[in-house]
Structure to design on (304 residues):
């Protein structure tokens, strides 16, 4: 059995996963080239219009907890012989993605949030948000009235997954880029001073636009940690189980691991995949004792 291209759709129960999948299926032309299968692990308030979907050679299988996730998927595949699969994920089902059979080749993942419930979920269910966003290529905020309303969430979501694309969908269905980075320093300056709060913004902006900093001198006014020839800070976006080392490669590989104060020149570098990244070349550094606060805490980032 060959691999089947699969898209995962994440979201809480009220996020609109069913509507999103059904709209996607009925507005593309892939059905002309074969069968689409929807594997539903969560039944919400909106039901699939199976009569409509059948016109698009699309079929829905609903998970029955009496069998394993793997068996359910394989039985549905054997029955419908799909050319592509959409999976309506259940946020509360532990290790669901990990239990999918290998035949399902995940090529894209989308997470949906309904705007009017987002503050409640960020406050109370952040570990689930972390899991969904980390696994996603795209995150959509549905029925959000304005881009300004989303601005307090910029740091949180961009830090969780800098690679993802973030979209705002307004109540009329218009889509636009969800977040703009408002940098707390000027890109016109030849020298940029970065404290620990600005470090997050530097990291996120350089991920998308490393060319912003090519040839700049960056003076870090708060301590940085050196680990395996990379320099940065460990950031906590949710809890102690959710730590990530946001860092830049050092061109000087002789600097030992530990804490330093750093002045550096920034330059573009290209990795083995041809992707541009920002590298730091130390101009001067001073080894120091570890600071009192070893972690940068983003748990209150919605207030930033």
């Amino acid at each position: 059995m060959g691999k089947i291209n699969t898209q995962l759709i994440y979201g809480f129960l009220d996020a609109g996963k069913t509507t999103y999948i059904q709209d996607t299926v009925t507005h593309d032309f892939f059905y002309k080239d074969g069968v689409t299968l929807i594997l539903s692990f969560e039944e919400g308030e909106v039901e699939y219009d199976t009569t409509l979907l059948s016109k698009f050679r699309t079929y829905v299988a609903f998970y029955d907890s009496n069998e394993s996730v793997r068996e359910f998927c394989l039985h549905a595949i054997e029955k419908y012989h799909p050319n592509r699969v959409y999976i309506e994920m259940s946020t509360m089902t532990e290790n669901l993605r990990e239990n999918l059979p290998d035949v399902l080749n995940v090529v894209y993942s989308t997470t949906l949030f309904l705007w009017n419930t987002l503050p409640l979920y960020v406050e109370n269910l952040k570990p689930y948000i972390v899991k969904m966003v980390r696994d996603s290529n795209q995150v959509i905020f549905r029925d959000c009235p304005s881009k300004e309303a989303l601005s307090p969430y910029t740091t949180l979501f961009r830090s969780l997954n800098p690679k993802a694309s973030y979209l705002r969908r307004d109540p009329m269905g218009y889509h636009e880029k969800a977040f703009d980075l408002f940098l707390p320093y000027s890109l016109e300056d030849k020298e940029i001073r970065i404290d620990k709060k600005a470090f997050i913004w530097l990291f996120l902006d350089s991920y998308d636009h490393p060319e912003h900093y090519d040839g700049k001198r960056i003076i870090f006014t708060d301590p940085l940690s050196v680990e395996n020839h990379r320099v940065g800070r460990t950031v906590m976006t949710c809890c102690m189980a959710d730590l990530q080392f946001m860092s830049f490669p050092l061109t000087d590989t002789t600097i030992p691991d530990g804490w330093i104060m750093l002045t550096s020149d920034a330059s573009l570098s290209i990795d083995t995949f041809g992707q541009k990244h920002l590298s730091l070349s130390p101009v001067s550094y001073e080894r120091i004792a570890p600071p009192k606060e070893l972690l940068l805490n983003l748990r209150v980032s919605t207030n930033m």
